[in-house]
Amino acid sequence: MTGHATVELKTRAERFAAAVTLRQIRYFIAVAETGKVSAAAEMSYVSPSVITESIARLEGLAEAKLFSRHPRGLELTYEGRQFLSHTRNVLSAVEGAGAAVLGSSRQIEGVVRLAATITVMGYFLAPLLARFQRLFPNVEVRVMEANRPAIEDGLLSETYDAAIMLSSNLSKRSEFLAHTLVNSMRRLWLPSRHALLQNDIVTLQDIATLPYIQLVIDDAEASTASYWRRHQMTPNIIIRTESVEAIRSLIANGQGVTILSDMMYRPWSLEGDRIEVREVAADIPVMTVGAVWRRGRDLNAATQAFLNFCRTDSELLRTQSHRAMPPPSA
Fold first, then answer.
1. Which of the 8 DSSP states describes residue 104?
2. Which of 326, 36, 285, 309 lies closest to 183, judged by CA?
3. Count of CB atoms situated within 10 Å of the CB of 159
4. Cα–Cα–Cα angle for 146, 215, 270, rounded to 5 degrees
5. What is the pLDDT of residues 34-55, one digit of tens each?
């Protein structure tokens, strides 16, 4: 590259850096990792038009197409994949900058007795705790796994200070305060080469005749029954299991299908077989993960720090919780 071209490239990069916003970067990551403007809008709590406008602006600034459009959604271009790897580093750097200016966080000491449900333990909690403990190294978080009823009772009896759980399933809502960390969409999981992959639209009626594999942890069966009942249908359940890994293997081997949240989705079974996902054209509620604590509880400094961290960091957490969700294949 000639000296003139190098200077020109540097100037363009500086203009881009001066104009791009952190919000645009977060919207870009959301679209990259869901493959859908509508899904990115839902997890970002904005309208699809805001996402579309933001991506168009970002592509204009980058002077490159970051996505290719196809009937089922969007896929990253080569430039988009390159940009994605850098944008994740940007978010990490911003987080580090926050840690640097929050020096007082090192002065907070104490113990947080934190309860978590099995779904949260397996698919959500570890990154949250790692980030919190980098900021608050002198706070000890003691985590206990329990089911929802036991957590609610433990919060009321002050056995637990706070919980990370499926807050959409709370039964004693008036007794608690909650802050939403992420809303995870529920989609159809099915094996590769399944006939429904050819459908432009998949409905619950399409699914009702298929063998269905039902997860039974964290009130999943009750949640499934509620939205099927609203549509006056029932799934053809042939297997009930507490193991998400078993569900992955069964689906990948063609034994059935299921509807589960993006938070638990991984594209491969333990045997290395592919699992596909499709949106369902039905009113299926999202799965909400939240920080929960007892209303009116006098919290210690460590627990207050943890809950404040969850509040301020929740937008970034929502983005990161969808990293495993690939764009739907054409």
1. G
2. 285
3. 14
4. 100
5. 888 888 887 777 888 899 999 9
Question: What is the rounded average pLDDT of the residues 249-261?
Answer: 96
Q: Please tell me the CATH code under which domain 104-183+287-320 is placed.
A: 3.40.190.10
Between CA 271 and CA 276, with CA 274 as vertex, the angle to 5 degrees is: 145
301's CB contacts (< 8 A; 6+ apart) are: 108, 109, 110
Cα atoms in the Cβ-side hemisphere of radius 13 Å centred on 100: 6
Contacts of 98 (CB under 8 A, 6+ apart): 135
CATH code for the structural domain at 186-278 = 3.40.190.10
Q: What is the C-alpha to C-alpha distance for residues 92 and 5, in angstroms, rounded to an integer?
A: 30
Token digits of residue 285: 């509620």
pTM for this predicted structure? 0.65
> What fold characterizes domain 3-100?
Arc Repressor Mutant, subunit A (1.10.10)
